[in-house]
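Q&A log
Question type: sequence-to-structure
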Amino acid sequence: MKTDEQFMQSAINKAKEGIKQGQTPFGACIVKDGEIISCLHNLVFENMDITAHAEICAIRETCRRLRTIDLSGCIIYSTCEPCPMCFSACHWARISRIVYGARIEDARQFGFNELEISNEVMKQIASSPVEITVDFLRQESLELFRFWGESGQKAY
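Response status: OK
Response body:
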């Protein structure tokens, strides 16, 4: 059986693919019963859709593949703390666990227009049962921002 580290590494690798394709440094991998259901990078520029964050894209793909909007029992591995929109989508989809690397404030430091509302705060406000694991492979996730910065792209 694969480990949390291997699933997060899949998200990191997907984010690197996205950077090479002109996307921003974010990746997300959704797993159910130890199997990857979807693993996508940010598609904002490719789709010209500001909501096409890696987590949203992965949730959409997982719902299609599983033919349900109830993702109970799924875990999402995200290279960065989900923004409020992405956390809300995880909550509405009933994702059981969020595992993330870098934090929202890290994204802001690299120029991204993030709302500074942590997943822990949103969890409390919503009385959400989602389990949250923070700073998982944090250094590897931060390295994505550096790799992206070296590519000469700009934050949105």
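Response note: Helices lie at 4-20, 44-47, 54-66, 84-92, 104-109, 119-126, 138-150.
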